[in-house]
Each structure stands twice: as C-alpha cells, then as structure tokens.
UniProtKB/TrEMBL annotation:
Pathway(s): Amino-acid biosynthesis; L-histidine biosynthesis; L-histidine from 5-phospho-alpha-D-ribose 1-diphosphate: step 1/9
One Gene Ontology term of the molecular function aspect: ATP phosphoribosyltransferase activity
Catalytic reaction annotation: 1-(5-phospho-beta-D-ribosyl)-ATP + diphosphate = 5-phospho-alpha-D-ribose 1-diphosphate + ATP
Lineage: superkingdom: Bacteria
The protein's name in its UniProt record: ATP phosphoribosyltransferase
Alphabetic keyword roster: Amino-acid biosynthesis, ATP-binding, Cytoplasm, Glycosyltransferase, Histidine biosynthesis, Magnesium, Metal-binding, Nucleotide-binding, Transferase
Cellular compartments annotated: Cytoplasm
One GO CC term on file: cytoplasm
C-alpha cells in the first residue's frame, strides 16, 4: 500500500482531508483516529503533526506527505516538493518596533526570535548577515516586549496581531508558503502508485479551477465564440436542429466565467450555462 502522511491538526488539516475526500479516498471519521486504511484504493493514511511530516517522509517510512512548504524547508529534511495544492497560503516576514531596523541589512549583532529557525538561519546566511536566532514555539510577538529579541520572524496573514503588539513589518518577504505534496529525495519519481495519487489531486485542482460552459451560437459567429472559449485542447461543437445554429461545450477558468458569459451574449450566443466539475483527468 501507498503510505501517506496527512496533517492531524492545524490550518492544513481540514483542507487536506477535504481534498483527499474529493479525490475519492477514505478519510477518518473522528480526530482520534491516527491511521486510516483505504483497501479499495490501496492506501494507508497516517495522521501526524504537520511539523513532523517531512521528517517521516525523508526517512522513507512513508511514501508521500502533505505539509506546508515552510515546514518542509524549516525541517531541513531530505524531501522535496512535488505538487503545490493551492491552499494554506501564508507569507513569512520580519517585524520589529518602529525605528529599530529598516530591513535585514540592519540586523547585524541583533537577535531574531522565530518558530522557524531553519528558514531564518538560511535566509540570513544567504544575505551574509551576522545575527543570532533564538527558537520559540509560538507567540513570538512577546519576545521583543520581554527583551528576548529585537526582531521577530513569523507567518503574516493580515498583520493585525503585529500591529496590536506595536510592531511593524520590515523588509521584503522571506518566503511565501502553501500546502504541498512532498516525497523523499531517495524515492522513485516514477512510482506508479504515487503517480496515480498525484493525478487524482491534480484532477481536484483542475475541477476546482474550471467550470464546464455550454452555449448555442450562430454558425457564422462560431470562430469568434471559440476564441473566447478555446477549452483545453479544443471545444466540442455540434450542429443544432435549427439550421445555422451550433452547440458549443468547453472548459473555462471559473474566475473568468462571468466575463466570458457576458462576451458570448454580446456576440449573440444564447442558452449559456455553466456547471461545476467534480473530477477530471487531463
């Protein structure tokens, strides 16, 4: 069986389980379940702390894992990202009290508090900055107030909690992160079991990003209509009973669907419909 690590809690847990469910896999029914066997799909799911997943995968004990890009890089594990999953996005940045520093170039001799020591140490080394890094498990905003550090480095979403603590974001983002599928550097990239798993997740990503659009249009307007809805390879075009009319079906990006419908209507197309896509293979 393919052995897959899944986040057991935190912001990645729910969306990861939802995506796997959409991909046709059996998920746990309650949070106390640590292992779920899906014999029909020949997969075992292991629910682990997100921070530990890269370590388990790099050891070869598990074939694949879902975790955050930031957690993968911070772990230093011998594992690689193979598929971004388009959820759990975050930005990692520096912050400090106003007037302390403008950016990393001013960090020399200072102490930086963070829960992501590996990422920060690597970033400082790449910038050639001689600063100390102290590891804290969460609530790093208080490190400055308590005199533990002059700078913090943390995940920033809206920046509200930083502003409430009297801090300001400085410098460019250290990195951007999202949920990713990972595998060991030593694993076989052509493993058919893993390839099938990735195809299923890619199918979910496409199904979430596209809708199916159907419409009728006059044959003389077909080329202009098809230019608006080229589909992935090309649209399906069928003649209608009424002479001079054709029916067109094509996949279109969901975020552009309303604009495309407006443009088709202006072109003379009618009976324009969109439907959700629940699964696909490209």
């Amino acid at each position: 069986m393919l052995r897959i690590a899944v986040p057991n809690k935190g912001s990645l847990s729910g969306p990861a389980s939802a995506m796997l469910h959409e991909a046709g896999y059996r998920m746990r029914k309650e949070s106390k379940e640590l292992v779920v066997v899906d014999p029909e799909n020949e997969v075992e799911f292991f629910y682990l702390r997100p921070k530990d997943i890269a370590i388990y995968v790099s050891s070869g004990k598990l074939d694949i894992g879902i975790t955050g890009r930031d957690l993968l890089l911070d772990s230093g594990a011998s594992a690689e990202e193979i598929l971004p999953l388009n959820f759990g996005r975050s930005t990692f940045r520096y912050a400090t009290k106003p007037g302390t520093a403008k950016g990393p170039e001013d960090f020399t001799g200072m102490t930086i508090a963070t829960s992501y020591e590996g990422i920060v140490a690597k970033h400082l080394a790449e910038q050639g900055i001689d600063a100390s890094v102290v590891h804290l498990d969460g609530a790093v905003e208080t490190a400055i107030q308590l005199g533990v550090a002059q700078i913090i480095a943390d995940v920033v979403e809206t920046g509200t909690s930083l502003r409430n603590a009297g801090l300001e974001i400085i410098g460019e983002p250290i990195m951007t992160s999202e949920a990713v599928v990972i595998r060991s550097n030593a694993s076989d990239p052509e493993d058919p079991r893993a390839q099938q798993f990735l195809r299923r997740l890619q199918g979910v990503l496409v199904a979430r990003s596209y809708v199916m659009m159907d419409y009728d249009c006059r044959a003389e307007h077909l080329e202009r209509a098809v230019a608006l809805t080229p589909g992935l390879e090309s649209p399906t075009v069928s003649p209608l009973h009424n002479e001079g009319w054709v029916a067109v079906r094509a996949m279109v990006p969901a975020k552009e669907a309303q604009r495309i419908m407006d443009d088709l209507y202006e072109l003379g197309a009618r009976a324009i419909l969109t439907t959700s896509i629940h699964a696909c293979r490209l």
